[in-house]
Amino acid sequence: MSKDPTFRDQYHIIYGFITIIKNTLLCIAIVVNRTLEVDNKTLAVASEIDLGTFHPLQKPTNP
Question: Phi-psi region for residue 53, left (φ > 0), alpha (ψ -120 to 50) or beta?
């Protein structure tokens, strides 16, 4: 690093600012990820559901 005191002060300010932004984004990502996991568990469809047989509609034939 440079011996210039002005450069060091600016470097520390920029480094601190970037570190705060990085940590804030990481915290937001953890909260969003945890919220999505909880929502997926509550919306899960049971695997025992019987949906019946599938009978597609037949196309009418044109004369």
Answer: beta
DSSP label at residue 3: S
Asked whether the beta carbons of 13 and 21 are under 8 A apart, the reply is no
DSSP alpha helix (H) spans, 1-63: 5-42
Mean pLDDT of 47-60: 67
Quick check: 8 and 2 in contact, CB under 8 A? yes
Q: Other C-beta atoms within 10 Å of 33: how many?
A: 10
Q: Note the pLDDT of residue 48.
A: 67
Residue-wise pLDDT tens digits, 6-43:
999 999 999 999 999 999 999 888 887 776 665 555 55
Q: Give the tokens for residue 18.
A: 């970037």
